[in-house]
Write a structure and sequence with these properties.
It is a single chain. The protein is an alpha/beta fold. The chain has four domains: 257 residues, TIM Barrel (Alpha-Beta Barrel); 151 residues, no CATH class; 182 residues, 3-Layer(aba) Sandwich (Rossmann fold); 164 residues, Rossmann fold, CATH 3.40.50. The protein contains 37 helices and 23 strands. The protein has a seven-stranded parallel beta sheet, covered by helices on one side. Helix 36 packs antiparallel against helix 37. The longest helix has 33 residues. The protein starts with 7 loop residues before the first helix and ends with a helix. This is Glycosyltransferase. GO terms for molecular function: glycosyltransferase activity. It holds the Pfam family Glyco_transf_4. It comes from Paraglaciecola algarum.
Length: 910
């Protein structure tokens, strides 16, 4: 388990929901004398729910469940139900079959009804009808108003289940819909075992707020007569509960108590189902049970997917092509069906899915299996045993154990995948993970469009997929990869299902004036503690967030870092060095752990600042929770590969297209200079201008403990008036570092005493030392050491055309050191030419301006003052305020006043 920091703000939202709902359930438990109550699960399904509402299920010809009626009834009985009902979709076949077998059952079904003005299908739980009435109800369900008029006329009670959950996203849904529902229904389901706590609490508060005056006002507004639908506005709404179980795991654990006065005497002359129907009509209902957030649905979907994997049949290509749905839906179903049918060829995988299903039903794998299975998979068997054992525990303990086991399984299998991929690459003399380059990725990892060439090779080219025998690698990875996909898929799907209408939930909460989701962003980054400029700027952002307690938390993947306020740390599943580009590591985070932190932390948006593994994680979170996602662009990768690789224009265009596809997946992209913004919104990248935000890095407070030191302590023999250039950066070619010899040599023609000091490290260090043998190389410097250098030396030189901002320019300005740089990208947005530095076009002009700077003391003094004034314009408060505002976050009120006082102080110091 990784270490995390949970601030009190993070937990407030979910804690308040849990506390509020627990109090409600406690109150309901005391409403009626249990001795006069029948216990019922109002909402559960079996194998006769064979036509799913979800489009993909219909395209793939998958039933909603394979659960047998007999097993469902047995589970309901084991969990204490006094009355049985089965609410299958649009049919009561299971109820009629039970009646024929002599089982007392409350006849019911969950009808899918059409709301014409919203082009929307909603569910209606319906009870106590006859077989003849079932036929009419199926005809009437094409119009919700006709359906409900019929049920009211024939005294058939109905319940509106999961009122805030709809099976499709629908832009036509607005708050008027809920005003109509208040007029159309008397009973609402506020406890659904497969839906999340937020929806349940919102529904509860909404239903309890429906006063007689409100219902009458809504009826008048929408020209509806409540009496037509059997609704009495003067009576409070009736609230119910049910498990919504489809898999036979949770049935009967959530439900309702039905109060019948003098129950024991009444049971002598009436069946439980008859008394239950009487109590429903009277509204004597009290929900019981607990909401499992997304955990229960995750377990249910994992069980469902496990059965789908073993039971799916080929849906047929023409059926998929001709079925209703978008092209994306059809392509998605084609891919999924092929993946699942391919999985069925792997006996090992099929056995595992069977074991998963058995474990979720409480059946442990055979003891001999643990001794027979490969040592890499003994861990999987142990987790399945743990799941099966927990079935005997409380429902809450079972849910916790299963979800914990899913996370552990996913982490273990991904570590196994990473090690096998690494071994395969090394064994086949493919790309070595400690030295791979952009060229190799671009050229070697070109996936052929001909599938046989991808999997079996075409007999000619030997460099596809990095010389790796893909068919052998896939065979080695098939089991852990397929299982990981299913585990991740069930987790993604369970949460995505709950939050597919997140915008509606936000609007609903705002309308209620309570239960609003906390507005917080989780900021993912691959680099925070590394030795580079990006890490420095991100560290500065984190410090400001910590100082002002802003609604943003960072998350990094690191094997040694420790958590801190506003900083989560997850341990890497795998990590490897990229030596060619300096001291840089690629770290693979645990996807499930990040998702857990996002959920438990109450975040509602995601930010990512690096294009590596964290970008993949951010897009997974975006899809899983249906939240806004943003990308913070630190690096101009096109310029980077142009300077560090020999890729031609065609190959660079391939990278550009990859980047365009990536950035278009985000709701917003932050850039650090106007040139980059123009490029992203231009014809090459085609991003929406309204979704590209210009931002900046902010300055760090000047360390008043740092002082100027004699130049002689840095450069032997130097005097106070010795002209000294200074540069601090990663020493690599793309930084323009190899322009320095030409610049310095030209300037020395008129300034023979000119010296240069270099701070930093990188792959071009030795080459630069040979070209400038009399240069002082200090290596990597701490912030305090850098501060003293800025204060002591004269002019900062920045020869990079690659950097998107140039954080070191601001660092120099804070300490009064002017900067000379090329007139491009980041520097031209920061430096004011001939005021606090110089913007030049080439090395000749740079050398000339260096000479001019050192030959005019007045210019030097003015530029020092102006540099500090310019730094004061890059205070944290206004930059962070705009950054968070662009993401839709609200800052604390004190932040603006604090900014004004700090800005005035900075100007005074300057």
């Amino acid at each position: 388990m990784s270490l995390t920091f949970e601030s009190s703000i993070n937990s407030d939202f979910r804690y308040s929901l849990q506390n509020e709902f627990s109090q409600y359930i406690q109150q309901q438990s005391q409403r009626f004398d249990r001795r006069n109550c029948l216990k019922i699960d109002f909402h559960c399904h079996d194998h006769n729910s064979d036509i799913p509402d979800e489009l993909w299920g219909r395209i793939l010809r998958l039933p909603e469940t394979w659960l047998k009626t007999k097993k469902l009834v047995k589970l309901l009985k084991a969990n204490g139900s006094d009355v049985y009902t089965v609410t299958n979709h649009n049919n009561a076949r299971s109820c009629w079959e039970l009646k024929e077998q002599g089982v007392d059952v409350l006849v019911a079904a969950e009808f899918t009804c059409f709301f014409p003005e919203y082009d929307l299908f909603i569910h209606v739980l319906t009870y106590g009808f006859s077989q003849e009435q079932e036929l009419v109800l199926n005809q009437k369900r094409q119009n919700i108003y006709e359906f409900l008029r019929y049920t009211a006329t024939h005294d058939i009670p109905v319940i509106m289940p999961h009122p805030l959950y709809f099976y499709t996203r629908n832009d036509k849904i607005d708050l008027d819909l809920f005003e109509k529902l208040a007029v159309l229904f008397t009973r609402f389901e506020v406890l659904n075992g497969q839906r999340d706590l937020w929806q349940s609490v919102l529904t509860l508060n909404w239903a309890q707020s429906l006063t007689p005056d409100k219902v009458k006002r809504y009826a008048l507004k929408h020209n509806l007569n409540p009496a037509d639908f059997g609704v009495d506005p003067n009576k409070p709404k009736v609230l119910t509960g049910g498990s919504d179980d489809h898999t036979g795991i949770f049935a009967g654990q959530c439900g309702s108590y039905l109060y019948i006065e003098n129950l024991q005497e009444r049971l002598k002359t009436a069946k439980p189902s008859e008394l239950a129907l009487e109590a429903i009509k009277a509204g004597n209902i009290a929900p019981f049970g607990q909401i499992g957030e997304n955990q229960k649905l995750n377990i249910a979907l994992l069980d469902y997917f496990s059965q789908v994997a073993t039971k799916i049949k080929d849906p047929g290509l023409f059926r998929i092509m001709l079925h209703r749905g978008s092209t994306w839906d059809k392509v998605g179903c084609f891919v999924v069906s092929n993946l699942l049918l391919e999985m069925q060829k792997h006996k090992k995988t099929m056995k595992f899915f069977s074991f998963v299903h058995d474990a979720l039903q409480g059946k442990k794998p055979n003891k001999l299996l643990k001794w027979q299975v490969n040592k890499d998979y003994k861990f999987c068997i142990s987790q399945l045993e743990k799941i099966a054992d927990s079935k005997k525990s409380s429902p809450e303990a079972f849910s916790h154990t299963v979800n914990s086991a899913i996370n552990d399984l996913f982490g273990h299998l991904n570590k196994l995948i990473a090690s096998r991929v690494e071994n395969a690459l090394k064994d086949n003399k493919g790309i070595q993970l400690d030295s791979f380059s952009t060229e190799e990725i671009t050229r070697k990892f070109e996936i052929p469009s001909q599938l046989t060439a991808l999997f079996f090779g075409d007999g000619k080219r030997q460099d596809n997929m990095s010389n790796v025998r893909v068919e052998k690698l896939l065979d080695n990875l098939s089991f852990p990869l397929l299982i990981s996909l299913v585990l991740a898929g069930s987790t993604l799907a369970s949460t995505r299902v709950l939050y597919q209408n997140r915008e509606l939930l936000n609007q609903f909460a705002e309308h209620l004036g309570k239960n609003q989701h906390s507005n917080r962003a989780l900021y993912l980054t691959d680099t925070l503690l590394d030795k580079n400029g990006v890490s420095t700027s991100l560290s500065g952002k984190l410090k400001e967030i910590q100082r002002a307690d802003l609604p943003v938390d960072f998350l990094i993947c690191d094997s040694e870092a420790e958590p801190a306020p506003h900083l989560h740390v997850v341990r890497p599943i795998s990590e490897f060095d990229v030596q060619k580009y300096g001291e840089q590591k690629i770290r693979i985070p645990d996807l499930m752990e990040v998702a857990r932190i996002f959920y438990e932390g109450g975040y509602d948006r995601i930010v990512c600042s690096t294009e590596g593994p964290m970008a993949v994680v951010s897009l997974f979170i975006q899809q899983m929770f249906n939240v806004p996602s943003y990308f913070f662009m630190h690096t101009d990768w096109i310029d980077f590969i142009k300077h560090t690789t020999d890729l031609n224009q065609h190959e660079r265009d391939r990278i550009r297209r990859w980047m365009r596809a990536l950035y278009n997946r985000y709701d917003g992209v932050f850039v650090l200079n106007s040139e980059h913004k123009d490029w992203l919104t231009g014809h090459e990248m085609e991003l929406n201008p309204e979704q590209v935000y210009l931002t900046a890095h902010h300055t760090q407070p000047r360390d008043l403990g740092s002082h100027k030191i004699p130049k002689a302590s840095i450069i032997s023999g130097a005097k106070d008036d010795t002209p000294v250039l200074f540069i601090a950066c990663r020493i690599s070619k793309e930084k323009g570092i190899l322009d320095l010899p030409e610049i310095v040599n030209q300037a020395r023609l008129k300034l023979p005493d000119l010296k240069i000091v270099v701070a930093g490290s990188g792959p071009a260090t030795e080459e630069l030392k040979q070209a400038l043998p009399d240069t002082i190389f200090l290596g990597w410097q701490t912030k305090k050491q850098l501060a003293s250098l800025y204060l002591s030396l004269d002019l900062f030189i920045f020869p990079s055309r690659f950097d998107t901002f140039g954080n070191v320019i601001l660092e120099a300005f804070v300490h009064g050191m002017p900067t000379i740089a090329y007139n491009c990208k980041g520097p031209k947005d920061i430096i004011q030419d001939n005021k606090n530095g110089f913007l030049v076009e080439d090395t000749d002009e740079m050398a000339q301006n260096i000479v001019a700077f050192f030959n005019n003391k007045s210019t030097r003094d003015n530029m020092r003052q102006n540099a500090m004034l310019r730094a004061a314009e890059y205070q944290a408060e206004p930059i962070m305020q705009q950054f968070l505002s662009d993401m839709g976050l609200v800052l604390p009120d004190f932040y603006n006043s604090e900014y004004n006082s700090q800005y005035n102080f900075q100007r005074t110091v300057a």
